[in-house]
Protein 1
Amino acid sequence: MVNKNDYEEVRKEIRRLITEIERHNYLYYVKNEPEISDAEFDILYDRLNKLESKYPLLVDTNSPTQRIGAEPVTEFETIHFAKPLLSLDKVQSYEDFLGFFNKLKRILGEGISINYTATPKLDGLSIGIRYENGRFVWAATRGDGYTGENVSLNVKTIKSIPMFLNLDEKQKIPVLEIRGEVIYHRDDFVKLNAKLESMGEKTFVNPRNAASGSLRQLDPKITASRPLKVYFYDITHVEDLEFTSHWEMLKFIEKVGLPLVPNAEFLENTIDVKNYFENTRTKRAQLPFEIDGVVIKVDSTELQTRLGEVSHHPRWAIAWKFQSEEVMTVLKDVFWNVSRTGAVTPVAILEPVFISGATISRATLHNEDEIERIGIKIGDKVIITRAGDVIPEVIKPIVNLRDGSEIKIVPPERCPVCNSKLSKSPDDVFRRCSNKKCPAIVTDSIKHFASKRAFNIEGLGEKQVEILLNENVIENVSDIFTLKSDKLSSLNRWGDKLAQKIIHNVEKSKHIHFSRFIYALGIFGVGDHLSDILADNFNSIKLLMNASFDELVNIKEIGPTTAQSIINFFNNESNMEIIERLIKLGVTIEYPEKRIIEESKLKNQTFVFTGGLSSLSREEAFNIVKSLGGQVSTSVSKNTNFVVVGENPGSKYEKAKKLGITILTEEEFLKLIGK
Ligand code: IVH
C-alpha cells in the first residue's frame, strides 16, 4: 500500500509535470519559441506517462497524456452555449462600411467618438470552448449558434489549446466561454490531399473543408493526425470578470495562453479601418491560411452594450468581405427547377470550373428577367463568381466570343415535373406550378423542413424524402414525427443503421428554436432573416399566428406583400392542422430570451421571491428581473408589485395575500419574462 504522504508527493509531481508540459506546449505551438529540444520534452512526457500508469487514480482527464487518440464515438452529444455564438452582418465596400458607421452614429449620437478593433476574418470552422475555474471542460462546433456538437475529444488533440488557462494565482474565473476558428494552413492542406490521394481516398475541396472534416471526426485518432490550428477572437461569456474594451479582451486571451487571432489591430477611425482592410487584402496571399475579409468591432464594451444585437448578429460588429474571384467557363445547358413555392427557376449547367476553393458546375440564373438582362444564351462563354465566396452566380456572357452556334433560352410552358400548365402573374418574376400535389413542391417543402437551418434532421435529404413520399410513408411534414424505425428499415435499400439514425435525429430535432421553427414552416417570403425578425418581435407562435396585418407591417423589415403572405399562411386550415399536429407529436419551441427592446419592461416593478423555483436559480431569476429594468427585494411590503411563489413558500406568501399583492406562480413569472 502507498503511504499517504508519498501519494501526496506523487500527486504534486504529476501536477508539476502537467504544468511544465503545458508550458512547453504553449511555447512550441503558440509562441513558436521552444525552450527545450523534442528529446527533452519526451523525457518529461514519459515521466508523466509512467507515473500515471502506476497511479491510475491520479490521471487527470486534462493531462497531456489524455490528449491523443481517445476511442471513437458513435455520435456527438449536443452542447448548449451560455451565450449564443452570433453571426456577423457583412459589407463588401468602403461605401457600405460607411453605411454601417452612420448607423452606429444614428444609434449612439453624432458627437460620440468610436474606436475599433480589427482582425482578419479566418475562413475555417467556428468553435466554442468552455473553461471552468481555468480548466478545459468542453469544446463544441458552432452548430446553429445556440447548440453545437461536442467535439471535446478532438479539440483536445490540438496542442495549441491549453487544458489549463494561465491565470494569476489569486484570479478566480468560475466560467469562461470563448470562441475561435479552427483552420487548416494552406501548405498542410496540400500535404494532406497528396497523402489522401496516394491512399486512394477522397480529397478535400479546400482548407476550410479539411478543417471541418478533420474536426468533425468520430474517431479522435484521425483528428490527432491532422495539424489543425485554432485562433481565438471573442469571449462570449465570462463570470467574475469585466472588460472595458474589446482590445482589453484580446489582450486577456493572449495573456492566459490562448492563441490569439494574428494581425489584430486597434483602430481609431474609419480611415484607419479602410487602411487596415487594404493592407490585409494586400497581405492575403502571403498569409499561411485563408481569410475572406476582415472583422471590425466597436471597441468600447459600453458602446457595444448600447448598440445591442439582433438575433442573427450584433450591431457593434461587421464583416467586411473581400470581393469574390471571377473566372470564365461555358454555359452548357439550362435546367428548370421547381421549388417548394412552385417557382420555376433557371439553373445554369456549366462546364465544371474551380473557383474560390471549389469546383462549380451549376449556378442559379435567378429568373427569366435576369436571363434577359444579362442576355445569355446556351453555348456562351460566361463569367462566373461565388457571391460571398459561396453561392455560384453567372455575371455575364462574353458576347464577342460568340461563333453563332449559341441557342436562345426558352422558358417552359408546362411544369417540367408534373406537366401541369404554368401560370405567371404580371407582378411575379416567376412562372409557377400551382399543383399543390406536384411531387417537386411536396418534396422540396419537406426537404426544406428537415434542412439544416430548419429542423436540421440529418440523414433526411432529397433522396430519402423522395423514397418516403413514393412509398406513401409520409404525406406532409408532420408525418416525419410518426416515423418508426422498423418501417424505415423495411424500405428498399435502407439498412437498420440509417433507419435508426434518422429516427434518432428526428427525436433530437423536436426541441427547436422559435426562429428555426418559423423558417421551417416555409411561409412564402419568410426566409432566414425574416424568421429571426419575427422571432424577435413575437413572444410565441400563438401570438404570431394571430398577428394582424397592421402589427406585421409595423415591423421595419416587413412589407405588405410578406405581411399578407404570413396572414394567408396562418389562415390556411391545413397549415394550422399541421402546426397543431407537430406540437401534439412532441415538437417544443424554444423562445429567445427577452431582447434589448424590452429592457424597460419591468421598470419600477418590485419583485419578491419565496419558495424554490424549479426551472431557474434564484440568482438567474434576480438577474432577469434586473435586466428587464425591475427590482428585487427580500421582504414583502406595500411597495412590492409581485410575489413569485415557488415550492414550499414561506411567510412572505401569507403576507402578500394579506396585502393583496399580485401573486405569480413560477409558470406565470416565466411567461411574464417571456421564457
Ligand atoms: S467575431 C459576435 N472575428 O465568421 C461576433 N468572427 O461570418 C463574433 N469568423 O461564424 C465573431 N474570423 O466564427 C469574428 N476574426 C474573426 C473571425 C470570425 C472568422 C467567423 C465567425 C462567424 C463568421 C461570421
Note: The CA atoms of residues 566 and 572 lie 10 Å apart.
Protein 2
Amino acid sequence: MKNVKEAYELAKQSYAEYGIDTDAVIERLKNIRISMHCWQGDDVIGFENTGGQLTGGIQTTGNYPGKATTLDELLADIEKALSMIPGKHRINVHAIYGDFKEPVARDQIKPEHFKKWVDWAKKNGVYLDFNPTCFSHPMSEDGLTISHPNKEVRDFWIRHVKACREIAAYIGKEQGSPCAVNHWFPDGMKDITVDKYGPRKRMADALDEVFSVEYPKEYIVDAIESKVFGIGAESYTVGSNEFCVAYATSRNKLITLDAGHYHPTEVISDKLSAAFCFVDEVLLHVSRPVRWDSDHVIVLDDELKNIAAELVRNDFIGRTHIGLDYFDASINRIAAWVIGMRNMQKALLIAMLEPTSDLIEKEQSFNFTERLAVLEEIKTLPFGAVWNYFCEQCNVPVGGEWITEMRKYEADVTSKR
Ligand code: RNT
Ligand code: ZN
C-alpha cells in the first residue's frame, strides 16, 4: 500500500491534539499477545481420528473446503495465518489436538503427545495455552461429564482434566510463560431438571479433586468458564455463571468470560470491572453471538470495542488472558483467524488512542456534555492510518493486502486437500 507513512504522520498530529502519543501506542500494541484458538482450523474436530462428531451443545455450520485434517496441516495453516497478523501471539490448544500416532484414551494423554506443539511453538516464537476436551466423546453422551451421577464416568473425566493440567504444566515450564488452562464442561439437561443441586455439588467436588494437584503458577493458571445454555442443554447448565464465579473466587482461580455465554442483553465488557474487584486475572473468550452462542467470527463492532476499552481504560491488560473462541466452517478458515485476530488488535488500538484521563476528568466533574461530545468526536479520528503503519512496522500485509495472500495459499495448498 502507498503513502502509509505520510498518512501516519498526519494521523499522528491529529491524535497529538488530544494528547495521544501514537508512537508509544504502537509500541504497546506490539507487546500484547492474543491467544488464537487452534480449533477454528478444523471445525473443532481434532486428531483422535475416531470419526467423532462435535457434541456438547456447540456446533459448527458450513462445509467450506480445505480444512486441516492432520497436525502438520493445522500447524502450516496457523503459520500462514500468523504471517498475516501483526505482533507475536499465543496458540490455544485443545486436548484432542495431540500428536497421536495411534488412538489414545482421553484419560491417558501425556506431555509427549504435545511435544511437537511445544517444539513448533519455540521455533515460531509463540506461547501455548491449553484446554481439556470434555465433549465429542462416548463418555459425554449423557450430557454430563464431571458432574455425572455415575462415579466411573466422573472419575474418567477427572483423570482427563488432571492429565490435561499435567500437560499444561509441561508446556508452561518449557515455554517459560504460564500456560492458561480453560475449564469448560458442557454438563446440562435438555428439559425440566428436578435435582439441580446434586450435579453442581458433584462438579464442585470433582473440581476440588482436580485442583488438589498443585503446580507452580509460573507453569499454569486455571480458569473456569460458565455458560447460560447449550443446544440440547436448554433447561439447565451445571456450570452456570453463579456456580463458576463463586467457585473461581472461593478457590483462587481465574474467571473465563465468553462473550456468547450470557443472556442476550448481557455483555462481558460490563463484567470485567466487577470480576477484577475479586480475582487477580481473567481469561477472555472473545466471540460473537448472533442471537445465540453461535460463535461467529468477531467483527469490529461496539461490544468488541467496549471490551478493549475496559481492558485499556482500567489497565487490566496485564491481568487478562485475551483469547478468541469462535468457529465458522462456512468461510476460509485462515481468513476467519486473520479477520478475528486483526479485529481484536484494532479494537485494542482504538482503545489505546482514547484520551481516557481527559474523559474521566470530565466525568468526575459531571461535565457529561463534553464527555459525550469528545467520545463522539474521536470516533472519526484516522485510526486506520495508525493501524496500517503498525502493520507495516510489523512486516505484515497492510490493509486488504492479506486477502490476496490468503487466496494464493488457498489455491496452492488448502484447495488441494
Ligand atoms: C463452549 C465454550 C468452549 C468451547 C471451546 C471449544 O460453549 O465456549 O470454550 O467453545 O472449548
Ligand atoms: Zn468459550
Note: The radius of gyration is 22 Å.
